[in-house]
């Protein structure tokens, strides 16, 4: 049935992709063994490429179905497919974002954000942050509350590695951009993460001034400083001037880095 929906033409989709068909189908396929579940979720993900299917999928409790797949620990491929489908369904629709939050998606997103192996999972991490930022923009109180619960903040902090290699630069850039967007949407979250270990991880990325991560790391740091109730106290606690002043004198930096460093120094000096 799923294959017919995915491969069928417009007439077939119109007949099959509707609540009366999808709702019982989701119910009987919600807890299949992993190989079959992956096939089903991949088909649902393929359906989300077509904007006309998003409404019927949501009406048939497709969001809750996908959140249930996120909960299946030890199945990273299945979780990746479910996350991608959920992101497509919810990213631009507030009602579906609320459905996902009510169904319990946010804690699972935070769990998926830090996975045992870096590298193959980096695309998933970026998609997690993109999804959280989109939902935060649409429903800040609800999503902020979920992100403040449990170990969600710790997981967000540990997305930024304590140590990184030069070869990880592009992947870290891809991660830092949505992280900065998430923090800019929630000054409260930025303040809490700054006090809970994010600042030293970000400043560590500034030790190599020619790295491609320098500018996005500075953007994250600027967001943390701007959100701080007392920027000078934050700077003193984490010795930001000792990191930024040497950076300002480095040659061969990327365009825009010197200006960003100057702005940050002005912000922390008052």
Features:
single chain; Leucine-rich Repeat Variant; elongated; 2 domains; mainly alpha; 270 residues
Structure overview:
The chain is an all-alpha fold and 270 residues long. It has two domains: 159 residues, Leucine-rich Repeat Variant; 101 residues, no CATH class. It is built from 18 helices and no strands. The radius of gyration is 21 Å and the shape is elongated. GO terms for molecular function: kinase activity. It comes from Auxenochlorella protothecoides. This is Serine/threonine-protein kinase sepA. Keywords: Kinase, Transferase. InterPro entries: ARM-like, ARM-type_fold.
Helix and strand topology:
Blueprint: H1 2-7, H2 10-16, H3 19-29, H4 34-47, H5 54-59, H6 62-70, H7 76-90, H8 94-102, H9 105-113, H10 122-138, H11 140-147, H12 152-157, H13 169-185, H14 187-204, H15 214-227, H16 231-238, H17 240-248, H18 257-269
Helix pairs in contact: 4-7, 6-7, 7-10, 9-10, 10-11, 10-13, 13-15, 14-15, 15-18, 17-18
